[in-house]
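This section describes the prediction task in plain terms. A model, or a person checking by hand, is given the sequence of a single protein chain and must write out its three-dimensional structure as a string of tokens. No templates, partner chains or ligands are provided. The sample shown here is typical of the held-out split.
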Amino acid sequence: MNAFHQLSATSLRGQNIPMSDYADQVALVVNTASQCGFTPQYRGLEALYRKYKERGFVVLAFPCNQFGHQEPGNADAIARTCQIDYGVSFPVFAKTDVNGPDAHPVFKLLTAARPGLLGPGIRWNFTKFLIGRDGQALRRFAPFTRPEKIEPFIRAALER
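The expected answer:
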């Protein structure tokens, strides 16, 4: 089993979710925030999820408050933004650190596997990592990369 699939994370509702639940799926892991200029990307992420979920694609959202304190709310506030404001139906996890000593193991693994232009750390909300069915990090996308620009990479990963 790949290292990604050996990890787990806490859902927004407090349940421990093993990443092995997403084995054999293509995943897009995204650090999100409810009060960010990129927050409208939730719509595009949801559109991709709905379009490709039957083919084995999932978006995994990890809210993060490390950048400009743009995710200040509790789980209920995050859920309201995701579900009511943006109609999100893909998995959303508990608020997570993505950098520093308390960075979640998912992000430690992904940033080591796919460092950015300025090094391994994440620089802002809505950094995205495309994970293959085998759990390997295939690509990293900058926060300003709109979800629809990622679609060709998702299709290619699904066809592997």
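For orientation: Residues 147-159 form the longest helix (13 residues).
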